[in-house]
Model the fold of this input.
Amino acid sequence: MKVNMGNFSGTWTLVRLILRRDRLILPGLFLFPVFMFFSIATTFVNMYSDPASRTVMVLEISNNPGAVAFLGSILNSSVGGLVAWRSAVIGPILVALVNIFLIIRHTRSEERKGRLELLNSSTVGRQSALTSALLTTFGANILMGLIITLSLIGLGLPWEGSLAMGFSMTLFGCLFAAIASLAAQLTENSSDVRYITVAVLIAFFLLRIVGWDNGEVAWLSWLSPLGWVHYLRAFAGEEWWVLGLFIVFIVFMLFWTYKLSSIRDVGNGFLPQRTGPARASSTLSSVIGLAWRIHRKMLFFWIIAFIVMGVILGYNAQTMTNIFNNNPLFMSILSHMGNGAEPLDSYMTLMLLLFGQVFAIYGILAALKLRSEEVKKHSEFLITNAVNRTRWAFSNIFFALIGPAMLLVIFILSYSSIYGIYSGMDQDLSRLLSAVLIYLPAIWVMVGVAVALFGFVPRLTSLTWVVLGFFSIINFLPDFLDISQWIINISPFTHVPNLLLGDSVGWDSVLMMVLASVLISMGLIGFKRRDIT
Amino acid sequence: MTVIEIEKLTKYYGKFLALNEVDLEVKPGEVYGFIGPNGAGKTTTLRILLGLIRKDSGEIRLFDGDPWHDAVRLHRRMAYVPGDVNLWPSLTGGEVIDMLGKLRGDFDPERRDELLEHFRLDPKKKCGAYSTGNRQKVALISALVSDVELYILDEPTIGLDPLMEVVFRENVNELKKAGKTVLLSSHILSEVEALCDRLSIIRDGQIIETGTFEDLRYITRTSITVDAYKSITGLENLEGIHNLTVNDKHARFSVDGEKIDSVLKYLTQFGVKSLLSTPPTLEELFIRYYSEEYTGKKIVRE
Done:
């Protein structure tokens, strides 16, 4: 390939533009993986400093095919080995998602919005936008790898292993940046680029699971970069040459990216545009049908996520319960929650405590579609048609209310069926179902907060996230922050009874339902009276 | 009986006075032009008319109802094309057209196919993949497909290519023949001139002129180009002459309507060889109203 430097003129200016535009997003996004590594490492350093407790855990994990399939086998029973094992799947996936987002944001989305055309018509080179996006993302990945390495060394882990972890994350990130930039050459639509790249990530994940370490086709995971992270053997006698696989793959991807980018027209892609039906189906003849079309993609995504979550928890339930039982610190945490409860019930209660707010995130996201539909001026088409405002608003709120219920049920079905298959134990499904469904009133209160803000101060709907964040802090860290009880009582999640630990359904839940309906009605009244902006 | 009746309509956005005592009257069967530069208050007026935002004061009647309180009932009798068309990116154009048509009721699939053909729109593409012009077509077809009494079109030809503009004009003329009422907001002057019976000009939230083109022509300047046998002198001393350029026996200027007679009498002394007089186009009309010399009152709430 002949390189014409004119194609790259203005690249540095564009890099500065990206850094300026993303001065908050860039560090914010990369903070996620860094923080994840840091918290996993701190947990293991603090809780498993004793070799005996580690040996017990390694034994547990090695005998749990589910854990080995999803997380890989433990290569070394040192603290570092455990950190590497625990983060070997979730870490790369997080890093990949961050990179996919950034590359699409700065390549195909820019092109789609016509900004690239504006740039290319000036003195900026043909390849400058692509190059600047890659340079910035690669740079950020290197920085991230460095911070991960330093923080692991800082926690007292051996430097070779820390370096291997940092390197692998940097390279995994760059790899997905390269894959996303290649996909961005193929299709015209940003969402198609996202589908293709995430599909590649899922394929790598599946290859890794099918080629799990104790299986007969373990060689399959050599086809997946997720397997390479494992075979790099951080903290277990590093195989540095594996890093070369990443580099070869990255160079290969970049070669094709630039090749395609130099022969295609601005605005076009190589794959044909996807088309859809020319006529509306009968679903689309009502407002609720349209709301379904708007909400279903997000709902499907969450359903799949929580099926997977249920599978993981179901697989791990027994191991985790044993780990809890053998770890005095966990036992003391659990004893706060219920006296003399079954360990398995305590485990599930703890998980629900965590997930309760995650389900609320879905409810809020769905409710805030109201605002995004308004801001994108989609709602105008309906409100200026023969649709009344309340009916339109309610069609969206409906999914914010019913969606979390669906997720809760699906999650618990997935969990209990996998647990049942795996442990061979009978479970009281109705007991589990009621234990999760009792979270609905609290989730609906959060939906109510979102709708009320939407009705009265539409510009401030994102305050809902602040409220949820505040509730999460006071619910997760009450002892740590020494928060007084009346503040803890503000959070609706405080009032959810732990049915598995012997609590019973009380007036609290009824009151929360009333509160939720009051908030939602208020929001609807406010919306009926205000300007559409 | 009027279709739209607006009197002293006023709207503030915070402290900013967006509409200042706007009056507008549209009669049945009329194609009414509503013109003004960007930010003059066209869209604000239309949004109040559609019940999307509330008025602060003044009277507004749409058919026999109030656009805010009777919104849904009134919307069944009208169709709207917004100026800034944003569609659901995951729906195809065909789906949007069908859905909006069915929601309004009385949806005619044959009319739909006819319009798709006229505007040459591929209904199978996702809205997210349409160009601006194609999104505009989707919005236009969604409105035109409905058999209603009133069509409110906010700058409907933005992004349409000249060929499609012709199609659009044909469709508006058809509506006119069928006795429908159309309120067309625009800053494309030739469009308004070609389509509208009457018009109002809005600037800084105030209606500064209302009437037919005949009415407005009366107060505008005529452009005159003249060649004479002798050198032309002294024109600069006459009243009512603007933008004068004289080049010995050749002169170009514009003249206020009421001064044409005296100026022509003055010119004859030089022996007129040829004279070209062009009636004011809407463009000129605009330049006059929006040029620096026009000073409108700006009122800010105390």
About this structure: Residues 191 and 463 of chain A are 28 Å apart (CA to CA). Chain A touches chain B at residues 188-189, 191, 273-281, 284-287, 290, 293-294, 297, 376-378, 380-389, 531-533 (CB under 8 Å). Chain A is about 75% helix and 0% strand.
